User: Fold this.
Amino acid sequence: KNSGIVIETAGPAIIKTSIQVNGRILPNEDLMTHVIPRYPGIVKQIRKRLGDAVAKDEVVAVVESNESLQPYGVKSSIAGTVLKKTITQGEFVKEGEAIYTVADLGTVWVDLNVHRKDFDKLKIGQAVTIFAGEGTANASGTVSYISPFGAEDTQTMLARVELPNPKGGWRPGLFVTGEIIVDEATVPLAVKASAVQTFRDWEVVFMQDGNVFEIAILEVGRRDAEWAEVVSGLSLGQKYVADNSFVIKADIGKSGATHDH
Assistant:
């Protein structure tokens, strides 16, 4: 019976070395603005609240100028979302005082905290997968910035990924985890990691010979979540059971078996 067994051919593969990190979603500060009234005065109208959408050049508040006593509209220079509001009705606004912070959340930053032992492995452009969990789809990006400074409190270094956020699902303030690919090596011979089973004291795969499966004892080198490098025990082009090999292991355990040298 098939039992979902999948046969593959042993051959070259790319083994990836990765590090696991924790991080947090932040607004893209390059797409953020502080809304500052041109003249000091009294706040007459507040037109936007925290979290409201703002169009480019939209009036977000009305201030009565302290000099002319004329009301004027205070506009946002970008389209985005109100992240911070620091005014109340009737309040006096000083010269140069920001009354709103508006950010375009069409892209966000993911700031990842990398441990000291992994600092030297980091490079700009490395591939990163971001995991939010709780039903949110994973996202892929690359390291776009590495901080030249470490964080005193956590003794970590910051690596940043910029993510597209067209649907707004990546919300600033939320925690995430990340996997950074720090090395990729092409190996001449590998099998799927799911194929490798422990049998007695050996690491083995099951080879297909017609309708019969035989045990091949492996010496395994580097491995990742997908692939295991074969140092010895299997030859290029040989067929092996890639998925659901535990079914064969269970059958062999019941009946006893010999292995192939």
Remarks:
- The mean pLDDT is 91.
- DSSP finds one helix and 21 strands in the chain.
